[in-house]
Design goal:
Largest sheet: 4 strands, antiparallel
Number of domains: 1
Distance between the termini: 18 Å
Order of helices and strands: EHHHEEEHEHEE
Strand content: 25-35%
CATH topology: Aminopeptidase
Shape: globular
Number of strands: 7
Helix content: 25-40%
CATH superfamily: Gcn5-related N-acetyltransferase (GNAT)
CATH architecture: 3-Layer(aba) Sandwich
Oligomer: single chain
Amino acid sequence: MPVRPALARDADVLRSVLLEAYNWDGEQRFTAEQLAADPHAARYLAGWPRGGDFGVVAETDAGEPVGAAWARCLPEDEPGYGFVAPDVPELTLGVLPGHRGRGHGRALMEALIRAAAEGPAPVARLSLSVEDGNSAVRLYTSLGFTRVGRNGGSDTMVLDVRTRAL
């Protein structure tokens, strides 16, 4: 499965993946319209890509999107759910229905971690938020993310990219 850098033309794919990430449990808790109208959700993609943003997209051999992972720094006065600090990019990951359970999430995460470490502006840490009950926590833990805080019904996790070898 090819994984490539996320580009400006991928904004619609990232929007679809963001919806899947918000509806991670298979329930439609949010519609695309609700997500588009939510200012908190908008901060993960508004103006994609802006300076410092980086991400990856997985595709089938035919070029159909499978999923994506991306990261962006958010300001302290407009934090994301997994906010740690303004210089720690928060990541979003999602695999589209019909493609889950095949290792695509791990491939996306490994590619994103490499991009964080080796990109034009390497970052030291990545953060994320994972809701209680989300089985993706096993993936995050296996990649070296550790719990650093709690926000409502979610854990905030951080990876020290400098000590993570892929």
